[in-house]
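[Discussion] Sanity-checking designs against the backbone

I'm trying to build intuition for which residues belong where. Below is a C-alpha cell string of 297 positions. I'd appreciate it if someone posts a full sequence so I can compare it with mine line by line.
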C-alpha cells in the first residue's frame, strides 16, 4: 500500500528509517522503505548499510549522482506500492501518529497529493542561523495559511502522492543543481487540476546547512530559476524575484544593480552569515545575484 522513498547524500538515515518502521509495523497495511544514496562517503555508507537488516527496508548506493530529481524518479520506479511518501533524509516525524495520519489520508477517495508541513526546533549556532531563520519564516507555515495557497506551500521534504499521478509528471531531470524542482512539480500538478491537499502532519527539518552552504545552494537555485524561465516552464507572475527582474530590465537598470551587487555582496554576506541575518537582505542578495549573471536583452 505504501512505499516510503528517501534520497540521501552524506547523511545518516538509520534513525529516520527506524522511527518510521516502528510506526509502520503497528499498522495492518503492507509497506516498504527505500533509500537511495547519491554517493556518500564510506563512513556514512557503512552506517546506512544497517538499513538492509531491517524488514521491508532497502538501502542502495547509486553508481552515479544524477541529481535530486533523477534520484526521486528512480525511487518511484523502484516502488511497488500505489502510494508514495517522499521524505528528505534530514527530517524526523514530529508525532508518533505520523504514519497513521497519512494512511487516513489515503482512505479519502478524492486525495491525490498531500503535503504534511515542516517544523524547526530550537535555535542553532550562529554559523547555521540563516537556514534556520529562513525555514522558520518561509517554511514553517501554519495549516490555515498553507490551505489558502496549496501550490505555493509545497516542498519535496514531506509529501504523499498517488503513484499513477506521479508517473504522469515526475520531477524534471533537467534540473541537476539545487532548487525549484518541487516548485515545478507543484506548478505542473496545478496546471492539470490536481489539487495538493494540505494536512497537519509535519516533520522536523534537522539538517540545517551552514550559512556558506546555504548561500551556495541559493545561488544554484537562482541558476535553476533562470533555466526554467528560459524554457517557459514558469509563470513569471508566480515568482516575486522574476517579476522584480522583469521590471528592472524594463527600466534598463540591470547593469546598475549588477554593479551594486558586486560592490556590496561581501557586506550582504557578512550580515547573512551573522547571528542575526536579515531575510530582506537575503532577498536583495538573490535579486542582485540574478542581475549579476543575466543581461538586459
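Best answer:
Here's mine. Compare freely.
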Amino acid at each position: 500500500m505504501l512505499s516510503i522513498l528517501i534520497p540521501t547524500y552524506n547523511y545518516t538515515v538509520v534513525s529516520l528509517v527506524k522511527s518510521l518502521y516502528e510506526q509502520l509495523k503497528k499498522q495492518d497495511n503492507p509497506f516498504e522503505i527505500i533509500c537511495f544514496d547519491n554517493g556518500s562517503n564510506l563512513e556514512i555508507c557503512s552506517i546506512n548499510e544497517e538499513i538492509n537488516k531491517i524488514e521491508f527496508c532497502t538501502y542502495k548506493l547509486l553508481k552515479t549522482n544524477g541529481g535530486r530529481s533523477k534520484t526521486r524518479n528512480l525511487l518511484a520506479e523502484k516502488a511497488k506500492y500505489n502510494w508514495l511518501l517522499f521524505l528528505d533524509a534530514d527530517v524526523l516525524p514530529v508525532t508518533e501518529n505520523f504514519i497513521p495520519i497519512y494512511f487516513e489520508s489515503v482512505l479519502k477517495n478524492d486525495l491525490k497529493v498531500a503535503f504534511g508541513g515542516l517544523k524547526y526546533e530550537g535555535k542553532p549556532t550562529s554559523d547555521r542561523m540563516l537556514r534556520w531563520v529562513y525555514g522558520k519564516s518561509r517554511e514553517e507555515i501554519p495549516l490555515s495559511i498553507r490551505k489558502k495557497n496549496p501550490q505555493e506551500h509545497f516542498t519535496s521534504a514531506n509529501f504523499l502522492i498517488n503513484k499513477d499521478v506521479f508517473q504522469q509528471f515526475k520531477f524534471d531531470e533537467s534540473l541537476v543543481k539545487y532548487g525549484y524542482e518541487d516548485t515545478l512539480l507543484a506548478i505542473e500538478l496545478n496546471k492539470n487540476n490536481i489539487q495538493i491537499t494540505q494536512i497537519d502532519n509535519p516533520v522536523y527539518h534537522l539538517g540545517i546547512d551552514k550559512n556558506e552552504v546555504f548561500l551556495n545552494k541559493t545561488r544554484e537555485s537562482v541558476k535553476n530559476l533562470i533555466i526554467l524561465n528560459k524554457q517557459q516552464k514558469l509563470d513569471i507572475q508566480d515568482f516575486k524575484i522574476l517579476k522584480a527582474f522583469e521590471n528592472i530590465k524594463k527600466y534598463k537598470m540591470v547593469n546598475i544593480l549588477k554593479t551594486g551587487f558586486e560592490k556590496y555582496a561581501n557586506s550582504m554576506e557578512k550580515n547573512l552569515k551573522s547571528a542575526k541575518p536579515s531575510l530582506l537582505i537575503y532577498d536583495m542578495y538573490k535579486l542582485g545575484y540574478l542581475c549579476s549573471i543575466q543581461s538586459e536583452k
